[in-house]
Amino acid sequence: MSQKANPTLIGAFVVGAVVLAIAAVAVFGSGRFFARSEPIVVYFEESVAGLSVGAPVVFSGVTVGNVKRIELRYDVAADRVLIPVDFDFFIDRLGVADPVAHESLQTLPPRRIVEGLVERGMRAQLGLGSLITGSLVVNLVMLPPDSPRRLVAADPATLELPDGRKEVPVIPSQMQEVRQAFEKVVRNFADLDTDALVVAVKDSLDGVRALVTDPELAEAITNANTMLAEMRTVVAQVAGHIDPMGQGATDALRSVQAAADEGRLAAQDARQMLAAVKPVISGAETAIARATQVLETADEVIHPGSLLYFQLSDALREAGSAARALRVLADTLEQNPGALIWGRSGGGR
């Protein structure tokens, strides 16, 4: 007779198979077994409180790995505490925009890619993952290629440790910089002579209290208010005189402008008159020259002692005087056209 199957045992096998199937889907579905990765170690000297195994490793906001192990070591030679943090850097999560360069990247070994990134300035630092929980993450950031590289245990040429892992240089976190600045402020404050500082502050407060309660200060404020009121009155009076003065100055400027315009017109008229007088003067000079020639000719005919001789001589002298007066007038008008209006003494107005 056959033995009846145990239902409990069958149920256990079924449950185990389901658990294994779920685990297989979770593990193989993540692709980690088929993704290329490179084991990385970073050495922190600052506190890693808040960083735990499984914490994300973030590169420009993209998770490229998870923390696998956190250790604590003491460096006797340098008298310092080091905290090595291990994680796998999944290279396949890093791509290149150029398709050709992306294909070349896929063929490069992961260690070469890590070396190239460090050469171009990749550094590791601690970052705040959550403000609420205070958890930390490992950030991979890019700095200028000539940034200093501080390595702890790896070969500077290959970045490799004896066990084959790559070391990525570390830079201080922003939290550490803030902490160091705060500690410096605390140290500087501790170095202050607080007793002398308290005494100085007390003396200053006493001086302020004495100044505020001084009766002379209240009297000085009252006098200042009175002086300000008087100054306002004086300013108002001055302003009342300035307005008429300004109007008078404006009228005077307008009168000067009108006189200048009249002077320009007079000068223009004088130039026109001078142009008309010049031909007359030239004609008179020509007539005098001709009359002189006639006189010289007549001198041979008319006797010097006759009445006609004396009359002709007087006429020629008067014509010569008139010609000279016209010449002087022409020269004066040419040098000072305004002389017709202002006269000789007013030519400089």
Describe this structure in words.
This protein has helices at 7-29, 99-107, 110-119, 174-191, 194-212, 215-299, 307-335, 339-342, and strands at residues 37-44, 56-59, 62-70, 73-75, 80-90, 122-128, 136-142, 166-167. The protein has 8 helices and 8 strands, in the order H-E-E-E-E-E-H-H-E-E-E-H-H-H-H-H. It has 3 domains: 37-183, no CATH class; 193-240; 252-341. Strands 1, 2, 3, 4, 5, 6, 7 and 8 form an 8-stranded mixed beta sheet that branches. The mean pLDDT is 75. Helix 6 runs antiparallel to helix 7 (307-335). It has 349 residues and is an alpha+beta fold. Strand 2 (56-59) and strand 3 form a beta hairpin.
Summarize the structure.
It contains eight helices and eight strands. With 349 residues, the chain is α+β, with helices and mostly antiparallel strands. The termini are far apart.
